From TrEMBL:
Protein name per UniProt: Putative nucleic acid-binding, OB-fold protein
Cited InterPro entries: NA-bd_OB-fold, Rep_factor-A_C, RFA1B/D_OB_1st
Biased composition (Basic and acidic residues): 514-524, 590-601
Lineage: Eukaryota, Viridiplantae, Streptophyta, Embryophyta, Tracheophyta
Compositionally biased intervals (Polar residues): 569-582
Region (Disordered): 513-536, 567-601
A GO molecular-function annotation: single-stranded telomeric DNA binding
GO cellular component: DNA replication factor A complex
Record-annotated Replication protein A 70 kDa DNA-binding subunit B/D first OB fold domain positions: 37-137
The Replication factor A C-terminal domain, residue ranges: 331-459
Pfam families reported in the protein's UniProt record: DUF223, Rep_fac-A_C
GO BP term, example: double-strand break repair via homologous recombination
PANTHER family: OS03G0429900 PROTEIN
Length: 601
């Protein structure tokens, strides 16, 4: 027993001596297992994730806009899966300095909640919540790609016939070459009175598919700033990250998603550099001439658009236009076209009017013969390749008048909603029964007797049928524009007629007024009516002699006899036989009556 104990002590002693000369022992802490975002188990509370902060924005406190209430973020893991995250500022005081874009983090014990936002910034239906028990540490390694792009090929964006054409889908990342830009505009007639501006351009991908992009406010300013700083740049590649999209008129339209979207323009990012090289390599000398880039996107004020970019026309001159074009007219809404309704059944995909048609289908029970079925048919062939679904859309026919004529114009839903300040759904749901009675909603009455400058389109239908019913693409009540356009009418019909230059005779109490009659003229280009007593226009300075009046009336009658032929006299008609000379003599004896011409009916 003693021998065994001695041997054990020697073993410990020799072991300690060996450790004295060996490398120091370092205790390795066990690294926690990393859970990928797609593998998070809702039944497990103790787990660790490793992510990159791809996007971050803050929300202010309700009672103090300058104080941060919470941080919203978009996390991305090693596989590229993204998930929205949220943390209250009071829970993030320890690691608040780590909350910044492109920062990689190791996060222990987060909680997983339901993402109830209607507008989703990522495809996941869950949201990560960093609560008071969550531990957040910086990670010095790399997690996923630096920018977290997830580009969608243009041709893979498919229209869902069951989706409302008014609603947007999100999110979407796109990259493309700017091939054309549509002039930007300032909107001064938004519902809240705040001016909004936008830019719209067309992007093309490497497979030469195209989409429309519309950016608003600060994002529009970003585009214009690039154009100002690089006026000669034609090869422009734009990335829209975390955008939204919808189909309109059969085309994809991508837009910014509030302030979450990121826009990159010719940035020194590998994805953009590689795309630009590939696209430019495909461009030939002939195709490149059709690419205008952003050169036409300079902002245009409403004044420029209405007064410089498009020709002005009076309503009366519209029928003389012989080519398709857009023009500006100025007029007042006087009424609604009573024979028309104020909405139409539109195709859900392209918004064009749909019609009903009857087709023959095989009987559902499999028996011989056919059944006649009434279906909807769109004016666009592409829409008819699938089931056509219709929705009611507002279209208001209005009667607009200027000093030359009155014309029928058509206001569409976008402009009507802006003017009335109510939603289209409100108008349709509350008033659709009025259509069967031929009545218009009472909300429309606020449009009557309002004067606008209208930008209208003269299309092939108007030219072919010599008909009005022009479509209104835009309208404004801008006082500066209205005043400038109003000057065009001065040459047609002055607001104030010329003052009458009254000249008094020295020896005659009557006044000769140089007013010409527009119906009849004498050989001296002077109408007999202009020789009437001056009391018709002014008060004589001295009493008028009654004999002078009688002489003047006789003179007037003789002048009328000289001017008008016998068939214009009160006793004659072009459809009746002449009277006898005695009848004429009787009329001549009536000195107190003026001879009145009788207009042939």
């Amino acid at each position: 027993m003693a021998s065994a104990l001695f041997s054990f002590c020697n073993l410990i002693s020799s072991s300690q001596k060996r450790n004295t000369y060996s490398e120091p022992f370092v205790m390795q802490m066990e690294q926690p297992a990393i859970t990928l975002l797609n593998n998070v188990d809702l039944n497990v509370d103790d787990y660790t994730i490793r992510v990159r902060v791809v996007r971050l924005w803050t929300r202010p406190a309700f009672n103090n806009p300058r104080k941060i209430y919470c941080y919203d973020m978009i996390f991305m893991d090693q596989e590229g899966t993204k998930m929205q995250a949220f943390v209250l500022q009071r829970n993030a005081t320890v690691y608040e300095h780590l909350l910044k874009e492109n920062q990689c983090l190791t996060i222990r014990n987060p909680s997983m909640g339901e993402n109830r936002q209607k507008v989703k910034y990522v495809h996941s239906t869950f949201k990560i919540n960093l609560n008071e028990n969550t531990v957040v540490e910086a990670y010095t390694g790399h997690v996923g790609s630096e920018w977290g792009f997830d580009f969608t090929p243009f041709d893979s964006i498919r229209e869902d016939p069951d989706e409302d054409f008014k609603s947007f889908k999100s999110p979407i990342d796109v990259i493309g070459f700017v091939v054309k830009s549509i002039p930007a505009e300032v909107k001064s007639d938004s519902n809240n009175g705040k001016e909004e501006n936008k830019v719209t351009f067309i992007l093309e991908d490497l497979q030469h598919h195209q989409i429309f992009v519309t950016l608003w406010d600060g994002y529009a300013d970003q585009i214009r700033a690039f154009e100002t700083n690089h006026p000669a740049e034609k090869n422009i590649v734009v990335v829209i990250q975390f955008g939204k999209y919808r189909f309109r008129g059969g085309h994809v339209n991508v837009s910014n998603l509030y302030t979450v979207t990121r826009v990159f323009i010719n940035s020194d990012i590998p994805e953009i550099v590689d795309f630009k090289k590939s696209f430019v390599a495909q461009i030939s000398a002939s195709t490149s001439s059709g690419y205008s880039g952003l050169t036409s996107s300079l902002i245009k004020s409403p004044v420029d658009e209405y007064l410089k970019d498009f020709a002005f026309s009076t309503i009366g001159a519209l029928s003389g236009i012989s080519e398709k074009k857009a023009v500006i007219i100025l007029g007042t809404i006087k009424s609604f076209a009573s024979e028309s309704t104020w909405f139409y059944n539109a195709c859900k995909s392209c918004t064009k009017k749909v019609f009903t048609t009857t087709i023959c289908k095989d009987k559902e029970d499999g028996s011989e013969g056919f059944d006649e079925v009434t279906v909807l048919e769109c004016q666009t062939d592409r829409c008819n390749q699938k089931t056509v679904i219709s929705v009611p859309r507002i279209k208001v026919p209005i009667r607009v008048q200027d000093c030359t004529r009155i014309v029928t114009l058509t206001l569409f839903e976008r402009e009507v909603v802006k003017l009335l300040g109510v939603s289209a759904n409100h108008l349709l749901e509350n008033n659709i029964e009025l259509a069967s009675e031929g009545k218009f909603p009472k909300e429309f009455d606020s449009l009557l007797n309002r004067k606008f400058a209208f930008k209208i389109a003269i299309g092939s239908y108007n030219l072919r049928n010599k008909a009005d019913g022009y479509s209104v693409s835009k309208l404004t009540e801008n006082p500066e524009i209205m005043a400038e356009l109003d000057h065009h009418f001065n040459a047609i019909q002055p607001v104030d007629e010329e003052q009458l230059n009254v000249v008094s005779a020295d020896s005659n109490p009557t006044v000769k007024v140089p007013v010409k009659d527009s119906v009849s003229r004498t050989g001296e280009e002077e109408t007999p009516i202009s020789k009437l007593n001056g009391s018709m226009f002014t008060t004589p300075s001295v009493p008028v002699n009654s004999s002078s009046v009688s002489m003047m009336e006789k003179e007037l009658k003789r002048n009328l006899d000289a001017v008008y032929e016998a068939d214009f006299c009160s006793s004659q008609s072009s459809t009746k036989p002449r009277q006898s000379d005695s009848g004429m003599e009787e009329d001549a004896n009536e000195t107190e009556k003026l001879l009145k011409p009788k207009i042939e009916k």
